[in-house]
Amino acid sequence: MVMSMATVATREAYFETGLEVLADLGYGGLKLAEVCNRLG
Fold first, then answer.
1. Assuming Cys at both sites, which of 5, 13, 30, 31 could form a disulfide with 9, CB separation 3.0 to 4.6 Å?
2. Are 17 and 39 in contact (CB under 8 A)?
3. pLDDT of residue 32
4. CB-hemisphere CA count at 13 Å for 8?
């Protein structure tokens, strides 16, 4: 699935990206802004 700026991110996409942020940055780095940045 290709994400474009007009694509609405699904709950699954937020969840998966949140887990990636958690793995990369740890609990202290898990911020909604970081998840949104990664989702575009």
1. 13
2. yes
3. 92
4. 2
Confidence at residue 3, expressed as pLDDT on a 0 to 100 scale: 57
Instruction: Fill in the amino acid letter for 20.
Output: E
pTM listed for this prediction: 0.72
- Classify the phi-psi angles of 7: left when phi > 0, otherwise alpha if psi is within -120 to 50, otherwise beta: beta
DSSP-assigned states of every residue in the chain: ----TTPPPPHHHHHHHHHHHHHHH-GGG--HHHHHHHH-
Q: φ, ψ for residue 38 (rounded to 5)?
A: -70, -30
Cα–Cα distance for residue pair 6/20, rounded to 1 Å: 22
